[in-house]
Every structure is written in structure tokens, then in C-alpha cells.
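From the pipeline queue, job 12 of 40. The input is one protein chain; the requested action is below.

Action: predict structure.
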Amino acid sequence: MNTHSLLRGPIVGMLAAAGLMLASSPARADVKLPSIFGSDMVLQRGSACPVWGWADNGEKVSVEFAGQTHGATAEIDGKWMVHLRPMKAMAEPHTLTVKGKNTVSLTGVLVGEVWLCSGQSNMEWSVTSSDRAQEEIAASANPLIRHIKIPHRPAFSPEQDVPSEGWKVSGPANTGSFTAVGYFFARSLVKELNVPVGLIGSNWGGTRIEPWTPPVGFQKTPALKEISDKLDTFPTRTMGRDPRNPLKTVRSINPQTPLALYNGMIHPLVPFAIRGALWYQGESNNGEGMLYYEKMKALVNGWRTVWNNPTMPFLFVQLAPYNYGANRGGDLPGIWEAQEMSLHIPHTGMAVTTDIGNVRDIHPRNKQEVGRRLALWALAKTYGKDVDVYSGPLYRSHKIDGQKVRIRFHHTGGGLVARDGKPLTHFTIAGSDGTWMPAEAMIDGDEVVVWNKSLTDPTAVRFGWNQLAEPNLANKEGLPAGPFRTDRK
């Protein structure tokens, strides 16, 4: 056998690996910061904010900001890091200066609240594509709201930096490209807290939850042992056509496999100080039922681990009704159940959207209300504001009362109502034979009473348990009730 043939594979592999290392390693000589740091950014108030970058081995680096000065020495790999002392919110722009052999000055820096906005297309969905877009963009000038978009960038191994176009200040020239859910969330926070809000938009339409999850998240979740046992095989490669030469096939990273987007779009952000995360995803995992709950645990606990913040708030959106097709009628209720179960993870919150979706469009346009509902959770649970009601009614318990079933709820607020003033909709009931049939329902104080006149032995009730269901039960504060079933095992 030809010796050159034996060596060809390993040599090509080593050259490719070397190329990847060079591509992912920051250039030395000049002091350099990762792109998450930039002019017009927002730093997290009340946190010992890490500031880091690269320089020559042994180079002395100083960081100056808002009256603070900190020094560090670049280590053998060139990396250096300092921590700013915790600061109060600052709405007046300051300059962050980093000095080594060269000087880097970042202007217009504020201090306030920073949130990571991640998930798939409904999080990436822009203000431009939302309801009343022209009106919203024209009125969006607000120097307290800032946004940075992380580009789509899967990676085979954890990246140290990711290029971006930098931080943008909210205003007619920029806001149209912001994540709509994030922007409307930030707008509510600024109104109530009167502090700057920074949004990190690291999201990608059509993606699954697994690519965003760090290795430690899988390792901490026993139900995902099948993934954690073979983490060294992820992410996988995929074959495709070279866009520059359609006759040529190229191998690239499969962005839908575990670790791919964590490596390229989340790891480069760590440990930038953030308050918490917003998450809008699930469509691409629809059909997994309660397995999605396990994957949510892996994502939440994984991010909390890499950010070294075990109580980091994680607020997410329950999917809206949508017609996935007649043969998938049970898929969406299954993931609704998994999402509601995710509220058992401490320091989480969920915005229900059954009343603001569009069963013919997987991208409902009313992102204003989605952002506002997430902000209600943040204001109440993260910031301790006096928010009486921050969620719609969620199933609490039930009791069989003769031929009727009485349902009790959490988050009834000022009382239960039918938001359209009509009889309650989308309740079904079953008896001992397990046959489901339409049910009548009425509000009785803080309970809902459910029955079918022809059924004498009710055993279980379901509410909104259909992918096309847009039920009308809500609380007086206008927040809809979440879908549920009493027969969950």
C-alpha cells in the first residue's frame, strides 16, 4: 500500500483541525475583546461584571470604567480577565477603556438589565414583521434599549468569540431588526424599572432545543443519558452542495445536532453578565411530549451551570395553537403539557399564548403581547414588583362532584371570566369507559364546573386539548388559561 495514502487522511485531518483552531483563536499582539463587548452595550447592574479578552502572553492590561480601574496580566494562552465591582444602573453613557500595548475605547456604555433572547423563529422574528410594524418602529426611539444580534454560526467545538455587527440603540434606523419578543419585553421593563435594558439576540429559526444545550446540561439529566453518553460524537456533519460550485459536495456542521449552536452561539457569550434568559422554541421538537420537559431541564440547568448562576431566571413562551395537520392532532397538547411542567424548574416563568395565535400561521404577529406577558413574570418574580397577576389561570386540582367535575386554578387574579362574554369553550369530559365527549362548563367563583348531561360517571376533564383550540377562559386581568388535562399520569 502507498505510504502517502496511509498518511493522507491523518495529515488532512490535522491540517483541517489546525485551520479550525486558527480560525477560532483570536489574533494576538493587539489587545482584543470578544465582540459581545462593544460601544453602546449594556452591562449588568448589581453584578461583578467580567471583562475579558486577549493580548500577548505576559502583557499587562488595565480596564477603566465609571471611576473603576482594574489590572490583569495575559496568561500563556493570551487570555486575561478582570471583574468590575457591582454597579447601580447608569443611564448616562460612559466609556470603557482597555489599555495594553494598544488602547481600545468603547463609548456609549450603559449599566442596567441584560437578557439573553434565544430559541427559534418566533424569537428571531423581527419588529419589522410584527403587528403595526411601521407605527412601532416610528415610535421606537429609546436610548435605554440596546440590542446585539449573534449571527448563525454552528461550531464543532466551543468557540471563544463570534463576529457580530455590534450593539444597536433602539430607534427607527435599528429597531426593525430587533427580536420583536425581546424588544417588547424590554419596552415593558424600561417603563416599569426606568433602567437601561440590553438584549442579546442569539436565536435561529427552525432549530431544535438540543443544539443550544451545553454538555453539562445533558450530563445532569438522567433521562437524556442516550445523548450524554455520546457527546464526543456531536455535533455531526452533514453533506450539501457547495454554493460556489453546485457540482461539488461539501461536508459541514449539522446545526440541528446537540452542541452545535451552544458551541458557536452561546459559549462565546459566557461569562458576559446577564440577568436571565428568554426562550421561545418548541415547534421543531413538537411531538416529543414529556421528553421535551427533560430537554428543558437540560437547557435551563446547563445554562445556569456555565454562567455559574443557579437561580438565573428563565422565562419561556408556551406555543400558540397551530394546525400541524390532521395526523398530528395530539402533538401540540403534548408539548403544552411539557412546557407547563417546566414551571416546576425553580425560577422559571411561562407566557400562555392560546388567545393571540393564528392557527394558519406558525408565526403569530402579536409579539407585543408576548413580550408584555414575559415582562409580567420578570417584574413580579425577578424584580419583586407589586404585580398582582402575572399569569393566566393554570390547573391546580379537581374534584368529582356527582355528575360534575369541579376544577380549581392557580392565578385566578380578580376572578375567572369568559374573555368574550360567551359560554366557556373547549372543555371535554370522559367517563369510566374512557370515551371523550364535548362538555358544558360554567364559572362558579374561583372554580369551573364541567359536565355532560348524558354522562353519569365522569372521571376526567380536558381543556383546550386540541391544536386548533383557542379557548375563552381567562382571568379578569385578561390573561388566558393554559391547556390542561386531569388524567395526566
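Job complete. Residues 109-387 form a domain with the Rossmann fold fold (CATH 3.40.50.1110).
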